[in-house]
DNA sequence: GCATATATAAACAATT
DNA sequence: AAATTGTTTATATATG
């Protein structure tokens, strides 16, 4: 009987989420990208570049502003947010940035503000600087911008629906529709939320309970927006009724944060040791983050306070711990989270853009295609031997981002919040690494690099069940696992599988039975599953030949997790295999591999990072290690290797592409065994 | 439209 | 007897 029914209850939703519905394939236009924007010449690129920088700048400022207004709660958000998408956007080449991509990148409403700013700047530039040259292009750009806005709006809804965006406070969402936000707008928003409106409403909004946002599809976005608006106003009028339970939940929620702050290691905001109690802020005499220029800086509040004493009094009276304050705090946290995420993304993008421009200004295609396509071609040849899957890299890399540096242990979100959380704060350091890496990293590395991510974020891994199972088995010391061990591996490595149990377990069993490559071996104490590499390789040929579309999908998929997970998985999988294959090798072989890249370093570094956080020991170095590289095309390889290293943060040089290649070749043989 | 690949669901059998 | 583990069938989607 259905064993899993029990667990199943939990996940029902999720499955739907990814599995089926999402295919809408948002990515539509992306493939064009490969060649697409080449036409743009440089000027447009430059503009974009500027845009990015400006956006970044603005984001930073905004972020700082917002962050400063946030106190203790902030800390937790920092710590957590698993969700960063490992992804890929990074890999998009600058030149090919399309409205859709923009859309993807700028998810949060707040970003709209940035967008607006960018628009303004851009238009200015167009006029002053490039007007003459651009001429018609100018118009095109303007149109594009408009389009971008529209897309963004839709996208926001989509993300919300998919749960990718942490619940956006309704208010914000609404706001975004009316107009792009800017800091001042945000303030206004706050007023709306905090002002007339009852605290409960705020709460509701903060939790996203009310909205229609979640529902629907992009098509009805506007309709939703419209409907959403209504509630807002009505709320303002003061009618509302929120169950007290929500309130209780809120307090609970907030308290969880404060607790975590003190308890967990990461407390970004306060110095570890002397962290004062939450209330402490009030005590600080001379300055207070919520007080400045004679007025209260509490979001939405601009109460005038003569002095600190008065301010504190005001703070205690008006912003005591109640639903409204809590809700506001929550909203603020989300704002910060979003901005941080965005900042990180934008930074990566900027890096990628700059890198690209510096490296090969004239050759746009390098990135996109590169990947796979090119490589695939070569791969294919070798595929015959072994891996067809060459394609993968690209995607992986794309996905990767890297990033993870998250500091906090995270987790909170997943457990405490129903929706996925995101946010990671990577911000700082990580961003630095350059993108180039991202572009080409192989999948293996993807996994390795994002291992932490997958462990903590409830994001479906872009690999097929078969590839994951294989990976799990090969990773084990004896290259054999019992069903239960396989399950454990899944749950250990992927948060996603911690949550959605029933279906995936069934899927795992199904895959084990269905694919010839998985061989059941009777053992003394039961049965174990092993992998028949030959069979495994056999089945893949038909797969993807590295068509552009695939790549595109991967990219888009990775980026948002939303797209048809399964397909992504399939695509990605190919890459995964690459990873695995190395692992297959005997230790000695492995060692060879290592030479080349130093993945170790990478993996190790990554792991370290992870360890700080919450990761489990898991990733075995060796397996991930090799993966890295893999494949073909010398030129590209180089890039890959670099990228990898970059990710690691550290370093390395990019040495030996050639080695990598060798590895690959070696691998096959080994695998075949 | 067909073939293939994957995901998901579910029925059912075999084991533990 | 219940839970696990395996098999198998069916359906849906995406891609070539």
From TrEMBL:
User: Keyword Zinc: yes or no?
Assistant: yes
Q: Acidic residues bias located where? A: 661-673
Indicate, by first and last residue, each region the UniProt record lists as having compositional bias (Gly residues).
Answer: 26-35
Q: Where is this region: Disordered?
A: 1-42, 264-288, 408-432, 606-673
| Gene Ontology terms: cellular component | nucleus
Q: What is its main location?
A: nucleus
Q: Where in the cell is it found?
A: Nucleus
Q: Which CDD domains match?
A: FH_FOXP4
Q: What is this protein called?
A: Forkhead box P4
Q: Which organism is it from?
A: Gasterosteus aculeatus aculeatus (three-spined stickleback)
């Amino acid at each position: 009987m259905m064993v899993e029914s029990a667990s199943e209850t939990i996940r029902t939703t999720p499955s739907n989420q990814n599995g089926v519905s999402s295919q809408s394939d948002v990515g539509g236009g992306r493939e064009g990208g490969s060649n697409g924007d080449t036409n743009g010449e440089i000027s447009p690129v430059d503009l974009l570049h500027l845009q990015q920088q400006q956006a970044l700048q603005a984001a930073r400022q905004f972020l700082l502003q917002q962050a400063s207004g946030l106190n203790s709660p902030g800390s937790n958000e920092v710590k957590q947010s698993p969700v960063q998408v490992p992804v890929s956007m990074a890999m998009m080449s600058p030149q090919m940035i399309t409205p859709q991509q923009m859309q993807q990148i700028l998810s949060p409403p707040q970003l709209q503000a940035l967008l607006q700013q960018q628009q303004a700047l851009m238009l200015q530039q167009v006029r002053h600087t490039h007007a003459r040259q651009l001429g018609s292009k100018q118009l095109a750009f303007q149109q594009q911008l408009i389009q971008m806005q529209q897309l963004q709006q839709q996208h926001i809804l989509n993300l919300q629906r998919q749960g990718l965006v942490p619940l956006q406070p309704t208010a914000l969402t609404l706001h975004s529709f009316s107009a792009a936000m800017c800091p001042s707008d945000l303030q206004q928003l706050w007023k709306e939320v905090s002002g007339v409106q009852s605290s409960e409403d705020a709460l509701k909004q903060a939790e996203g309970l009310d909205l229609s946002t979640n529902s629907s599809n992009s098509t009805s976005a506007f309709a939703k927006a419209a409907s959403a608006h209504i509630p807002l106003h009505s709320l303002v009028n003061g009618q509302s009724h929120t169950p007290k339970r929500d309130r209780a939940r809120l307090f609970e929620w907030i308290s969880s944060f404060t607790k975590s702050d003190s308890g967990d290691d990461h407390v970004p905001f306060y110095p570890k040791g002397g962290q004062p109690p939450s209330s402490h802020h009030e005590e600080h005499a001379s300055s207070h983050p919520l007080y400045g220029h004679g007025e209260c800086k509490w979001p939405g509040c601009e109460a005038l306070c003569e002095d600190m004493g008065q301010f504190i009094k005001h703070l205690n009276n008006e912003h005591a711990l109640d639903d409204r304050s809590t809700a506001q705090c929550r909203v603020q946290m989300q704002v910060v989270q979003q901005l941080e995420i965005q900042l990180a993304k934008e930074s990566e993008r900027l890096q990628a853009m700059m890198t690209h421009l510096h490296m090969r200004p004239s050759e746009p295609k390098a990135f996109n295609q590169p990947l796979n396509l090119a490589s695939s071609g070569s791969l294919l040849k070798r595929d015959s031997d072994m891996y067809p899957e060459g394609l993968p890299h690209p995607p992986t890399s794309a996905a990767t981002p890297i990033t993870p540096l998250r500091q906090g242990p995270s987790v909170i979100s997943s457990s405490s919040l129903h929706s996925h959380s995101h946010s990671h704060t990577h911000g700082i350091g990580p961003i630095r690494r350059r993108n180039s890496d991202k572009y080409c990293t192989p999948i293996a590395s993807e996994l390795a690099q994002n291992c932490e991510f997958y462990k903590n974020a409830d994001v479906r891994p872009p690999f097929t069940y078969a590839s994951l199972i294989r990976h799990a088995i090969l990773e084990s010391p004896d290259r054999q696992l019992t069903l239960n061990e396989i399950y454990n591996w899944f749950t250990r490595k992927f948060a996603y599988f911690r949550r959605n149990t029933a279906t995936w377990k069934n899927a795992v069993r199904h895959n084990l039975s269905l694919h010839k490559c998985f061989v059941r071996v009777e053992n003394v104490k039961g049965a174990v599953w092993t992998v028949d590499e030959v069979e495994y390789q056999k089945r893949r040929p038909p797969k993807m030949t590295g068509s552009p579309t695939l790549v595109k999908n991967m990219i888009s998929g990775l980026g948002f997790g939303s797209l048809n997970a399964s397909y992504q998985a399939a695509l990605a999988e190919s890459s995964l295999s690459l990873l695995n294959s190395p692992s297959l090798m005997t230790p000695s072989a492995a060692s060879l591999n290592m030479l080349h890249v130093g993945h170790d370093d990478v993996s190790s570094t990554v792991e370290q990072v992870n360890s700080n956080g919450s990761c489990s020991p898991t990733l075995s170095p060796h397996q991930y290690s090799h993966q890295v590289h893999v494949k073909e095309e010398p030129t590209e390889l180089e890039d890959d290797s670099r990228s990898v290293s970059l990710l690691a943060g550290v370093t390395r040089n990019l040495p030996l592409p050639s080695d990598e290649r060798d590895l690959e070749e070696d691998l096959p043989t080994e695998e075949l065994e």
